[in-house]
Amino acid sequence: MDTTFTWEIKAKNSPLLIKKCSHCDSDRFYCSDKFRMNAQKKNIDVWLIYRCVKCDHTCNITLLSRTKPDLIDKTLFHSFSMNDWKAAWKYAFSAELAGRNNLKPDYDSVEYEVAGHFSKEDITHVSDETIKIQVRCEFEFNLKLSSLLKRNFLLSSTRLKRLFEQGVISLLSGKVPQKYKVKDGDIILIDKEYLLGMMDFVDSFIAKAGID
């Protein structure tokens, strides 16, 4: 039976916006998770509000301009009205929105955690010689596959490069893994025996470090 494990990547914060502040020397703005709406005659404008990390000066990013209310999805309109943070994050992480507004998100500022860890016993019970790990991430933020693997398996850049070259770790899509940026739904392929060895190393490191 085909068994696929899951890594769920959960962002802890939305990316900062790289933008020079006109009121201080800062060049970063944070998403306030709030929207500004303005009605002009029969049209509505909607902005996502950002604030300077240093002086809190506001910067409004255009989401909708002179749009008729009946053309806006009712659920989305409600999200704007209620300052729904998930809707705000959807836009804050949007590469399409950034490009449309000539903006540059600082994806390196995003902190994250990975849920869905599996045990050696789970891996041992898989009959296949190759383990499949599917990546799930609601928000994509240019996370490199190499960074994810180095973090989860405590691998050095040199060792990981060698594993890629040897085909020990690869992508089901066939894409070159070295500089690949993780997307929702990606499936990572890892040699079962080597994965067990890496998990032994991680467990040993955690035990020596006294990490709970």
Q: What class would the helix/strand composition place it in? A: alpha+beta
What's the number of structural domains?
A: 2
Number of DSSP-assigned strands: 10
Spatial ordering of strands, largest sheet: 7-1-8-10-9
Topology as a string of helices (H) and strands (E) = EEEEEHHHEEHEHHEEH
Enumerate how many helices there are, as a single number: 7
Helix content: 25-40%
Ranges where pLDDT stays below 50 over 5 or more residues in a row are none
Roughly what is the average pLDDT, rounded to an integer?
A: 91
Molecular shape: elongated
Distance between the termini: 33 Å
How many strands, what sense, and barrel or not for the largest sheet? Answer: 5 strands, mixed
User: What fraction of residues sit in β-strands?
Assistant: 25-35%
Rg for CA atoms: 22 Å
List the helices and strands and how they pair.
Elements: E1 4-11, E2 16-18, E3 28-40, E4 43-52, E5 58-67, H1 74-82, H2 85-92, H3 95-100, E6 104-106, E7 112-115, H4 120-124, E8 130-137, H5 145-153, H6 157-166, E9 169-171, E10 187-191, H7 192-209
Parallel strand pairs: 1-8
Antiparallel strand pairs: 1-7, 2-3, 2-6, 3-4, 4-5, 8-10, 9-10
Protein name: DUF1062 domain-containing protein
InterPro entries: DUF1062
Pfam family, one: DUF1062
What this model shows, in words?
It is a single chain. This protein has two domains: 4-11 and 111-209, no CATH class; 20-102, no CATH class. The protein is built from seven helices and ten strands. The protein has helices at residues 74-82, 85-92, 95-100, 120-124, 145-153, 157-166, 192-209; strands at 4-11, 16-18, 28-40, 43-52, 58-67, 104-106, 112-115, 130-137, 169-171, 187-191. Strand 3 and strand 4 (43-52) form a beta hairpin. The chain starts with a strand and ends with a helix.
